[in-house]
TrEMBL record, chains A, B:
<dbReference type="InterPro" id="IPR009057">
    <property type="entry name" value="Homeodomain-like_sf"/>
</dbReference>
<keyword id="KW-0804">Transcription</keyword>
<dbReference type="Pfam" id="PF00440">
    <property type="entry name" value="TetR_N"/>
</dbReference>
<dbReference type="GO" id="GO:0000976">
    <property type="term" value="F:transcription cis-regulatory region binding"/>
</dbReference>
<dbReference type="Pfam" id="PF17932">
    <property type="entry name" value="TetR_C_24"/>
</dbReference>
<keyword id="KW-0238">DNA-binding</keyword>
<dbReference type="InterPro" id="IPR036271">
    <property type="entry name" value="Tet_transcr_reg_TetR-rel_C_sf"/>
</dbReference>
<keyword id="KW-0678">Repressor</keyword>
<keyword id="KW-0805">Transcription regulation</keyword>
<feature type="DNA-binding region" description="H-T-H motif">
    <location>
        <begin position="51"/>
        <end position="70"/>
    </location>
</feature>
<dbReference type="InterPro" id="IPR023772">
    <property type="entry name" value="DNA-bd_HTH_TetR-type_CS"/>
</dbReference>
<dbReference type="GO" id="GO:0003700">
    <property type="term" value="F:DNA-binding transcription factor activity"/>
</dbReference>
<dbReference type="InterPro" id="IPR050109">
    <property type="entry name" value="HTH-type_TetR-like_transc_reg"/>
</dbReference>
<dbReference type="InterPro" id="IPR001647">
    <property type="entry name" value="HTH_TetR"/>
</dbReference>
<feature type="domain" description="HTH tetR-type">
    <location>
        <begin position="28"/>
        <end position="88"/>
    </location>
</feature>
<dbReference type="InterPro" id="IPR041490">
    <property type="entry name" value="KstR2_TetR_C"/>
</dbReference>
<protein>
    <submittedName>
        <fullName>TetR family transcriptional regulator</fullName>
    </submittedName>
</protein>
Amino acid sequence: MGDADSDFREMIADEWRGALNDSEHRQAMRRLTLVRAAGRAFGRKGFHKTTLDEIAAELSVTKPMLYRYVKSKQEILYECHRIAVTMAEEAYEAAILSGQSPLEQISLFAEDYVARITSTLGSCVVLTEFFSMTDEDTARIQARRAQLDRKLRSLVSQAIEAGEIAPCDAKMAVFFFMGAINGISRWFMADGSIEGPEIAKIFAAHITASLRPTKDMP
Amino acid sequence: MGDADSDFREMIADEWRGALNDSEHRQAMRRLTLVRAAGRAFGRKGFHKTTLDEIAAELSVTKPMLYRYVKSKQEILYECHRIAVTMAEEAYEAAILSGQSPLEQISLFAEDYVARITSTLGSCVVLTEFFSMTDEDTARIQARRAQLDRKLRSLVSQAIEAGEIAPCDAKMAVFFFMGAINGISRWFMADGSIEGPEIAKIFAAHITASLRPTKDMP
DNA sequence: GTAAGGTGTTACTCGTGAGTAACCCCTGGC
DNA sequence: GCCAGGGGTTACTCACGAGTAACACCTTAC
C-alpha cells in the first residue's frame, strides 16, 4: 500500500465524515462515497476478491454500517455499472447537441466518455465484472448499453452516408471502439503516468482515424 | 438452452468420450476438452457463477471426475488464460517472421490473433476474469502480457520511424488496439451473425487505419 | 475366479464471506 | 437525571460450492 493510496484512503474517509448538513442529503452523499470506494476496490482486486469488510475498513467503519446505505453487495456493483452507463449516455447526448458532423460527434462522444470514466470522481472503474451482477441487473445494464450501441451505429452510418468515412460494418466499428474504451479500466491507475483528459484526446484521435478511409477497407 | 447450444454440448461430450488410444494421450486430450468446455461456460456466465458441477454436467460426468484432470477450479481458469496469451505470442512470432514492414506486421498480428481467439477450437473466451486467478497465476499471465505489450510498442515505434504511421504515444496505441481485441470476447458468440475470420479482417483494417496519420494526432 | 486398475459415483466436510440480531454509547432536549 | 434515537459495534447465522473420502462397477490378464 503506497503513499498515494493511503492519501486516497484518507480523502475518501474525510469525504465520508464530512457533509454534516441535513441527514437526507448526507445519506445520499455517503452512499455515493461508499459506491466510489467500492468501485475503486473492485477495479483493483475484482468484485469477488473484495470483501465488504475491506470496503468498510476503507471508510473506517464496520460492515453492518454499509447496510444503512445499500441493500446488498450486488447493489453496489449495479450502482457502479449504472453510473458508468449513465456517463456514456450523457456523453452521447452532449455530442448530439453539439450540432457537429456525424464523425465529429463520434469523436466528441469518445473524448467526453473517456474523460468521464477516467475522472476519479466518477468511479473510474468497473466495466468488467458484468456477470457478477444479478441476472436482472445485468439485463437492465445490457439493455441500456445495447440501446446506446444502436445509436452509435446510426451515427456511424450517418458518417458513411455523409461521405466522412469509408463504408464499413457499423456494428463492428462500434464494437471496435467501444471495446477499446471499455478496456481502459483494466490498465488505468495501474501507472499514473498519464492523465485522464490526455488519454481521452489520444483515444478520440485513434477512433477518428480508425474510421477514415483506407485502401483495403472491407 | 437453444439447439445450437445443445449441439455444441454433444460435440464436447463426444470429444470427451472419444480418443481412446493410449491413456496418457487421452488424459491430455480430456484435460483440454475440459478446459475448453469450462472456458466456454466462463465466457457465458462468468467464472464465479459457473460451478464445477455444471462443467461436469456439460461433459456428462460428475464433479469428482474433473479432479482427475485438474488440481483446482483456479487451475482451469489459469489454463484458459495461458492458452489465450500463448495464442497472442504465437501470432506475434508469426507476424515477425513474415518479414513485412512494421505496420504490416502489426496488421498481421492483429488478424492472426483475432482469428485464433475466435476459433471455437481455441477456447474463444475469457480474457476477462483476470482477478479470479490466484495472485501467483495473475502475476504469471500479467508478466507475459506485459512483455508482449512491450514488443508491440516497439513495433509501433518502428512503424513511426519508418514513416509508415504518424508519431504517437506507442504505449497508448497498443493499449488502444489490444483493448479493442480483448473486448471481442464480451460480445462474440452472443450473435453468431458473423464469423471469426471476418471479424479478424475488419479489426485488422480498423487497427491499421487507427494508426495512420491524421491532421490532429497528438 | 480373482486380482489389478481404470472409470465413475454418492455422500460427505469445511472455509468463506454475505447478511443480521442484538446490543452500546453519546449527544441533545426537556 | 432520563429518555429518544441516530451512529456505531460485536458476535453471530447460514448458504453455497470447492474439494475429498470412500465405495462400486467393469473389463482384461493370468
